[in-house]
Every structure is written in structure tokens, then in C-alpha cells.
Amino acid sequence: MTSISEFLGINYIVIAPTLALLLTVIVLLFCTITISTPMYVKKYISFFGILLTLFTIFLKFGLFFTDGVSSYFSEKILLDEFALVGNVLIGLVLLFTFNSFWQTSEMIENKTTEALILVLMSASGFLLMVDSENFIMLFIGLEIGSISLYALAGLNRGDQLSNEAALKYFLLGSLASCIFVYGIALAYISLSVTGVFDTSIAISYIGPENVPLTTFIGLILITVGLLFKVAAAPFQAWAPDVYQGSPTGYVGYMATVAKAASFIVLARLVAVSLSFIIDQFDLFFGAVVILSVLAGALFATNQTDLKRLIAYSGVIQSGFILSGISSGVYGVSASIFYLITYIIQLIGIFTIFSIISGQLSSDFQISNISGLFKENKYITITFSIFMLGLAGLPLTSGFVSKFILITNLWSYERYILVTVLMLTTVAGFYFYLRPIWVAAVEKTENAVERIQVKNSDKLLLGILAALTIYFGLLPNTLVNITRWMVEGYL
Amino acid sequence: MIAIMFSLLIIPLSGALFVFAISNSRKELFRPIAIAFSLITFTQTVYLLFGEYAKTEFTILSNFDWIQSYGLSLHFGLSGMSTLLLVLTSLLVCVSLLSIGKDHAESKGFVGALLSLQFAINGVFISGDLISLFIFFEALLIPMYFLMGIWGGENRRYATIKFILYTVFGSVFIFIGTVYTAVLSYRVNGKLAVDFETLASLILLESQSRTLFLLFTFGFLIKVPIFPLHTWLPDAHVEAPTAGSIMLAGVLLKVGAYGILRVSIPFFTEGFLAYKNLIAVLSVIGIIYGAIVAIAQIDIKKLIAYSSVSHMGFVMLGISAGGFLSLEGAIIQMINHGITAGALFMLVGFIYERRHTRNIGDFGGVKISMPRYAAVFLFTSFASIGLPGLNGFVGEFMILMGSYNTYKVLTSFAAFGVVLAAIYMLWAYQRMFTGPIKYEENETLDDLNSRETASIAPLVLLMLFIGIYPNFIESFVIQEASLLSETIAMFAELK
Asked: Which of A75, A426, B167, B230 can pair with A71 through a Cys bridge, CB separation 3.0 to 4.6 Å?
């Protein structure tokens, strides 16, 4: 006898991280509307919520090791290696960016709770997104996450750039969502499936050579919706403006969480749904990769705004990550490694930006960090480590990730991609070294004035920089984890 | 022996960290502490010189797993050529720490960067596989970037970026070559093994060998630098601070030639045989071109920079001829050029600190005010020209002798390089030091003080020692040169 709940596969542990975050949001909401709670209590509540989320993710590991890969909630929610790694990534992004977004929220008068709720809501949405087996659940997760991010971008209402960022992000993001839904619809029309696994089963059933064109278009549109979120060219136009305009303290979170979730989902999509027809997407993915790295390198070279520079560098990194994802199972594992190390560096860089420029500011010129070395050596050194990591210099994790990725690409015989990616790396040295130069040497009018660095920020930057070096020297553990992720899909 | 090998990495790095840890109020301590650390390294390298691996071919002594699931591990080892270059590196670090002026010596960043540079260079010379070689080859750039970028001359930003971009562009090819080799090795061994022992047993098709040789050699030739790829060098030298120039000319250029001797030729010999004529022609063009351009220079530092292009051309000519004698000459010339170019840059640094100009025309008759300095400069110039009895002669003579059998016409042209060297060095000496004093600033210049004398003396003694008794230095390279030339001869016969 199986009860209904067992039959439907209802198991609350699987969605416990999402629920934990929603619970935190509700508690925060009640605290605001019923009794006037002091700020520090809200801080502890939200921090405790994040710790609770991490704990529930830990519980999910236990469930995974007893039950293995399985679907829950009538095949809406999936528990597999991608979901687990995605959960851990989003949980850690929340933990590592907590300092920045808390300080930023604190500065926004009368809207602190609102801001916190938006952050936590978006994380719950992205958690749901990486957990979902079903395209429609995926869409719901994506929308919960994205809409909160649109609002976060425009939270600093007095700032014109912030408003512009929010509007652009919203308009273009909604367009991407439309495309995504349209893709789901087309896939459903042609194959009558809406699931990640169902699609692959349906394709193998009718044979890869008989797949109708509508399915291809549908799957490509779904991919485009996700590529928009990771800012791969030619869907990158929003990224620089949004990074530039949004309050600096939020950008680190906004950039990393969307990238983490979307790439994990994209990796699963490629490893599972497209596994039989991946050859036919070569041209599409190849074009996106080459466009991304070339456009990113071209635009990044002349940027004077640091946040825009990092945005365009993000376009390049997206190209790198996508190149691995699109070229086979081991490529996927290399890309996940790349993604993790990139996220670590990105969080570090934006934490430093918000320390220097103030959490709420939008514009942040390269000349704004001149004289940083004189003012604070610790920040300059960690900043240099992160930038060198992005550039891919040996002894940092950036080198290892590039090395593994390129080795995999080469073994899949993608020589053109390798050539283009490596040439971009050379160009990268030009614009990644420039900010370090300005911070260490140059003297300009708008040099860094006295900056206050909290001990928590120092600790965080220390951890992130140490991780960047650690994964550069001893990458073994993380490589094994990313290999373990894909072992089931060989 | 293994412990000493690793301490070559650990001691400079801990020295750098130690200097960073000292508070800025004890500025006068930076230099003595750094010198103490570099003296430890120097003693260790000298000990290695009399150890069991100083006269052998490359022997891997130690390895550890790096990324197990890819079968990647890092290997470290020693050989005669590496040991010699390690000695040269640590000696040059020692003397350049001693020679730098007060404002550099009292900056912990400068001293620390120099020690971390030593760490990276030592890493290159003890690497036993392509990955660690590449890691240290790239890691060189960080301290160099700061040395040139922060303490460089007026136009340093342009020069630094040019230097970095050229090198990184070259290392991209080395990177792709490493990846390609690793994938080829994976197909045979089932893991991405790229250590030198595995590579020696790897059998490649001729096309693969050619491609890989081109990839690796292109990257290394930028660093050497060979004729059309040399344009970063004069800019970098002019803008770099004195210690940076000493390390750049003394060791960093050798890293390129070392890579070719260590990786390109032994493992991709068929490729070498296919392209050696091209390299020989380019290096002879480099010899003549570098020398002629050096004649026309008005900046003494730029003159020495172009003379480096010319001298490294000899090294590349010796390598591309591929005979026993010429290879031996090339390795010895690498060491000799490290000593003489290092000494020349140091001397230029001394006079720049006094006069804040490097224009040859701003001097004249300096011999009267600085007799000792002029004598040392003349001596070093002679060594650089290749006067018999001094070290420059040994290497160049061996290269010319060894290459003549293979490239009769090219070697005859290359011999003119020696004559041209005499023209540019002696003419510069004549304009700077002889005759009456033209400008009154030059009348009151101080002669070498005891610190400066102490820092130049070891180099001068070495020039004389190697010139008189070249057997000593030759004994370390015989084994490797003969192995290389046998490999080349074997492949040439197979063809």
C-alpha cells in the first residue's frame, strides 16, 4: 500500500532550502508590520535563515545518498548532482554576499526589510529553478528569482542610473522570459513533453534523426532564455548597464546568483535533454561562445567604468563556461569548476567595489581606485589576486579552470574555439592588469579617500582570496567533485 | 638533494614574505635581510654545483599528484644546465640587491618583488614537466610587472604592457602546445602525463612533432627574443629599474633559450630539423641587425639592450646548428651573457643614479672623475665584445666553430657581429669616458663606493675566471650537450 503522498512523491526535504528561505521572508515581513523590531534582530533573523538554508541543503545530501537520483512532487522536482551542487552554490553565494547586501540594505532608508526580502526571495526562486525537473517549474523559479532582481536593481530610487538599470533589466528580462516560455510551448507542441528527462526520453524514442524542426526551435529558444540570464553575447546588452546602475552592494549577489543557477540548469539541459542531439547544436553554441568572447574582449578594452569592465569580462567568462558545457560531459565538469572559481572571484571583486565606492553608489570609474595601495594594502592585494584570477594567471584558480577547460576542448577537437578563447585571454591581460596598475601606481584627482573596512569584510575577502589561491595550487578536491557530478551522464 | 631543491623555492618566497612582514619604520633592514635570504639560496645552488646531479642530463627527483582524476602531477628535477642557471640567478639576485640605490633598497615592495622573481625563476629551472614549467614561466610576469610598473622610468606603462602582452601572447602558444601534448600523451598512457620522462618516450608523427615544435618554440623565441619578435626588449630595458634590467637581461632571456633546449628540441626533434634553418637565418639577422642598431643608439641602456638581441642571436645560432660544440657554446654563452649584460646594466644603473641621464652625449671624459668605474666598464665591455681571455670569447668562439660545419655562409656573417660589437661598445666607451670633460656636472662625480665595488666585483671575477679556465663551466654542460646533439643526429639520420 502506498499512500497518496508517497505516490505523488511528496517529500519536503527536497524543497526544504526554498521553504527555509520563504519562512525567513515571512518572519521578516511579520516583524516589520506587527512590532517594530530593531535592525540587528532582522540581521540575525536573515543570517539565521541563510544558515538554516545551508543546513537543509546538507539534509538533501543525506536524502540523495540514500535514494539516489530521483524525482519528487509528481516529477516536478528533481534531486540529482546538478541540483545539489546548484543548491550549495546558491547557498554559499548568499552566505558570502550577506555582508554586502546587508550593509547596502541598511543604507536604504525605510526599505531595509523590503530589500532583504527581495534578496532572499530571489535566492529561493533560483533554488527552485535548479531543483526543477519540469520546464514550467523552472520558469516559475526563474521568474521569482528574476523579478526580485529587477526590483533590487532599481532599489536606490533617487539615482537615475539605478532606475535606468531596473527598467532595462526588466524590459529585456521579460522579453527573455517570453522567449523562454515560447520555447517551452514549442517543445510541448512537438513532443508533448515539459520535463528535462521526458524530452531526452522522447527524443531517444523517436530517434535523433526524426526530431521535428519545431522541437529544435523550442529547445534553442529555451536555451536563449537561459543564455540571456548569464549575459552571453548576443544577449549581453543589459549586463553593463545593469551592473553600472545597480547599487554596488547588490551587484555581486545579482551577478553571481543568476549565473550560478542558469549555468547549472543549462548544464543539466545539455547533459540530459540534448544529450542525443547535442551535435546539431554545435554551430549555435559555437557561435554564441565566439561572439561572447570577442564582443566581451572588444568592449572591455576601452571601458573606463570598472563595473562595466567587469560586466564585459563576465560576458567573456560566460563564453568560456558555455564552451565547455556545449562540448561534452567532461566539458560540463570543467565548466562547473570554472563557474565555481569565477563566482568566488566575482564576489570578492564586488565586495571590494562596494567597500571603496560605498554600497549605494552606481558609477564607479577606474580612476576611483587610484591610490588604493597607499590607503589599504590588504584590499589592494586581495583585489589583485581576484583580477589575476580572472585573467587566468598561474598560481590562481583562474589558470587551473582555463587549463582544464582548454584540455577538454582540445580532446573534443574544438580547435577553432580553443584558438579564439586563448587569443581572448591575451587581450584579457590588458584590461585586467589596468585596474591593478591604477590601484597600485597611478595618482589621479579622484583618488581613494579614507575607507573603512569592517573586520567581517576583511575576513570574507581573506577567505575568498585564500580559496582562489588554494584552488590554483591544489585543485584536486574541487575537480573530483565536479567529475562526480557528471559521472552518471557518461 | 630534494630538500635543497625545494628550498630553492621556499627560501626566496619566505624571504619575500619576511620582508613584507617587517614594519616600514625599519627601512634599513630590508636590504640586509633580503641579501641574507638570497645568500642562503646562493650557497645552496653552489652546493648543488658540486652535487651528484650537476653534470647529468635532466633527472626527475620528486613528483606529486596535482589533479588526480586527470592524471596530472607536478615533477621537479635537476640537471647540469639547470644548476648552472640556478647559480647565475641567485648570484645576480644577490648582487643586484647589493647594487640598488637607497630608494629602491628601502622599499619593501621592490625587495620583495625581486625575491619573488627569484622564486619564479628557480621554479622554471627545476620544473620537470610542462605544466609546472608553464606555471612558473607565467608567474615570472607578476613580480616583473610590479618591478617595471611601479619603479620604472617615465614611459613605463607602455613598456610594461608591451612586455606583458608579448610574453602572454607567446605563452598562449606554449599553453596550447602543452594541452596538445597532454592530449596526445593521454591517448598513449591513459593519463595527461607531460613530465619530461614520459615525453621522451612519446612517439609522435612528423606532422604532430612539427606543430608542437612551432607552438613551443614560438612562445620561447619571443622571450629570447629572436629578430622580428624582439621589439619589446629595448622598451622594457629602458623603462625597467636597474635591478629589473639585470634580471631581465641576465636570466629572463635565458628562460626562453632554456625552454627551447629543454622542451622543443629533445621532444620535438623532427620539428626542429624542419625549422632549424629558419631559426638560424633569423638569429644571424638578429646578430647583425641588433649590432647595427646598437651602433646608432644615443641611450646607453638601449645600446646594451640591442647588444642583448645580438648576443642572444649567437645563442640561437648555436642551438639551431645543433652540433655538440655549438650546443655547448650556446649554453655557455647563455651564462656568459647573463654575467656580462647583468654587469653592464648594473654599471649603467650606477652612473644613472649619479647623473640621472643615460644619454651618451651627456657624458665625455668621465674617466677623469671616475677612473675605477671607467676601468670596470672597459673590462666588462671587452668581455661583452668577446676579447680572448674573457668569458664572452669562450661562448662565441665555440658557437662559431661549431656552427661553421653546418652553416658556412651564415656563420661567416655572424662573425661580423663580433666586429660590430667592438664598434658599438668601444665607440660608446670612447664617447663617454675619454677626452676632456665636456659638462661640468661630470667633474664632481663620485667614483664607485665600496658597496658598488662589492656588487660588481663577483661578476668581474667570474668574467676573468671563465675566460681563463672555461673547462670548469664546460664540465657541467658536456653531458647535456652531447645527449642533445646525439638525439638531433639520430633523427637527422632517420630522415
From this structure: A75
**Contact: A411, B186; criterion CB under 8 Å:** yes
Domain ends where: B252, B267, B282? B267
Say if residue B254 is in the same domain as residue B293.
Answer: no
pLDDT per position in chain A (490 positions), as tens?
A: 567 777 777 888 888 999 999 999 999 988 888 877 788 888 899 999 999 999 999 999 998 888 888 888 888 888 888 999 999 999 999 999 998 888 888 888 777 888 889 999 999 999 999 999 899 999 999 999 999 999 999 888 888 888 999 999 999 999 999 999 999 999 999 888 888 888 888 888 888 888 889 999 999 999 999 999 999 988 988 999 999 999 888 999 999 999 999 999 999 998 888 888 888 888 999 999 999 999 999 999 888 889 999 999 999 999 999 999 988 888 999 999 999 999 999 999 999 998 888 777 777 888 888 888 888 888 988 999 999 999 988 889 999 999 999 999 998 888 999 999 998 998 888 889 888 888 887 777 777 777 888 899 999 999 999 999 999 988 999 999 998 888 877 6
CB-nearest to A407 from B145, B169, B179 is B179
Q: Which domain holds residue B184?
A: 1-267
User: Nearest residue of B to residue A476 by CA position?
Assistant: B67
Q: Please indicate if any CB of chain A lies within 8 Å of the CB of B163.
A: no
Question: Does B214 contact chain A (CB < 8 Å)?
Answer: no
Distances in Å between the alpha carbon of A49 and those of A42, A125, A364, B457? 10, 15, 32, 68
Same domain, B351 and B463: yes
Total count of domains within chain A = 1
Same domain, B295 and B227: no
Q: Is the ipTM of this complex over 0.95?
A: no
Taking one residue from A and the other from B, the number of pairs with CB-CB distance under 8 angstroms is 78
In chain A, which residues touch B (CB < 8 A)? 388, 393-395, 399-400, 403-404, 406-407, 410-411, 418-419, 422-423, 425-426, 429-430, 433, 437, 440-441, 474-476, 479-480, 483
